[in-house]
Amino acid sequence: LPAMLYTAAGAIDNPWSLSMARADKAGRILANLLLEREHGHRPVILMGWSTGARMIFTCLEILAAAPDGAGQGIVDSAFLLGCPVEADEQRWGAALGIVADRLVNGYAPGDWLLSLVSRASLSVSSIAGLTPIPHSGVENVHVGAYLGAKGHLKYSTRARRIFEALGVSGSSIAGGHDKA
Questions:
Q1: What is the pLDDT of residues 44-95, one digit of tens each?
Q2: Number of C-beta neighbours around residue 166 at 10 A
């Protein structure tokens, strides 16, 4: 069994590392677009799962680091489900500083796929999508009951239901679908 897991991790690691790098790049692009106010001057709500959540987190970090507080007032709330980012209190505190209302970390401790690929590629012991963030301002929500035994693979079909349970109105949720 350990040899099989090691082999599986090697097969997953390259595509996973590539998707993480692309999520970070997309987060930088999103942050730049938001700073340029391409969306107008209304605050945005950002929602994502898996590498989409990582993209949003990268965006929040860049907005928080923007000179002269240029990133302030852009993001109303951010909802991150199964986020493959280190559960570091300082990083999440910086991201929280840029969000006007809610920063939500949806986590599922039993998400074995996220655990396997993240811990193998990120080399950290605490992953946000698997555990609560140790910062009092971050809203931690256990979403494992929505995912069932398939864990991480179910975010794509259960995300709408999770976002609605978190109080995000249906009109704010773009795309996605919901299957039983």
A1: 999 999 999 999 999 999 999 999 999 999 999 999 999 999 999 999 999 9
A2: 17
Question: 31-39 long-range CB contacts below 8 Å, 24 or more apart?
Answer: 31/58, 31/59, 31/60, 31/62, 31/63, 31/66, 31/71, 32/62, 34/59, 34/63, 34/71, 34/74, 34/75, 35/63, 35/66, 35/70, 35/71, 35/74
3-class DSSP assignment, residue 169: coil
Contact 89, 136 (CB under 8 A): no
DSSP per-residue letters across 28-93: HHHHHHHHTTTT-SS-EEEEEETHHHHHHHHHHHHHHHSGGGTTTTSEEEEEEES--SB--HHHHH
